[in-house]
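Structure tokens please, single chain.
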Amino acid sequence: MDGSDPWARFEEWRRALDSLFDCAPVEETPAAFHGELVGYQLDPVLLGASRASAQRFHRDEARIAAAGVDHLLIQLYQSGRCAFDADGHAAEGRAGDIVCFDLSRPMTSVTSDLETVSLVVPRQMLRLAPRALDGLHGAVLDGGSAMGRLLSDHLRSLLSVAPGMNAADSRLVCEATAGLLSAGLASAAGASAVPEILIAPNVQAVQRFIEMNLTNFDLSAEMVMKRFGLSRSALYRLFEPLGGVAEYIRQRRLSRAALRIGSVGRGRGAVARLAHLSGFASEAAFTRAFRSRYGIAPRAVLQDPQGAGGWHGGRGPAVDDWLHAWMAGLSAAVR
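Here you go.
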């Protein structure tokens, strides 16, 4: 990053990251600010490495609404530390730790001078139960744990080979990375929870298919049966513990709507837009289902999210294309 004016250097950095975060220097005058970032596209994963001075990061509902991405940001802190609040869940990542942020939800953080390796990963790529994915915002994988060391080594190796990787290698490596990330993030939720979070292959395949098609109005039990060659009775047995496949689809759509409710704005048509993004064919059907599950109309939450009594954002306990263009331009912007 060139230029002798510290504010000019920081402004260059801030503009480069503006699509994802609002940045501010920790010091009143960033006299010695530096920032370096390089990125690689390994479809469908984005890989980046950065080194920067201490600063504050903020991702609010306006930035979430501007992009509407459904990705996870997974960061290995190679040096430094980061204290953060992930939508009400406060924690800290230290050198060696791996932290996961859900880019569909707000967060703030304050870092020291920090060096990171980062992955931006589509949510549906991870082999985790949907309820586990929804609870990963702010999850910290201890860098001293076995899974932490293994995943850290993998991320560093991935960064070293990325410049020379071809498209075929990239697809294979991303598949392997998805499996390792899934195991590592399951471990971050607690060793006792891992057997319940990682799913059996047959259930996993169907659930991943459902997750990838939640916004498809044609998604139904019949569509799942045709895709996997299952009889109605076999599909029923598979999803009986979850209340049946139709109910499972409805609940997943409602959960996604709850997590994305801050991304559609508050103006005219916001409820209809949220219904459409969540896979509901009509605003009326969506409103009825949302009220039935959460005890409040979606319009009330959109108009006053803080004052909506009884609203907890549909979350459990505390625990796209534009991204490709953004990442591709980062190296030139902030070297």
